[in-house]
Give the backbone structure.
Amino acid sequence: MLKKNVIKNRRQRRKRTIRNNILGTPSRPRLTVFRSSKHIYAQVIDDLSGHTLVSASSVEKGLLSGEEMKKIEQARHIGKVLAQRVQEKGIDKIVFDRNGFIYHGRIAAVAEGAREGGLKF
């Protein structure tokens, strides 16, 4: 139990450090990613107004269309869907916030999917 708390505290510290340096604006909002053991969540936030512009997650019904996908494939698909939704709002540039997670695996897959969808970081 102690090791889990240490790992979580390290991630929270990284998250605070990153958030002090990253700011999402209306022209270039912030794409933030959260990863649980089972699902992945991504949202695009305008920090100046404090509103979520677009979101996508593996929990949404119909998004993964009932297919059996591995977690990394799900994350890449979430990134592509999010990119499509953001571009419908007329935004093509974003700032990526890894939310304290290491840029590897599912976090990197969301970023790659968003890039494949046409977003520029």
Q: What stands out?
A: The CA atoms of residues 44 and 53 lie 6 Å apart. The chain has one domain: 2-116. DSSP finds three helices and four strands in the chain. The radius of gyration is 14 Å.
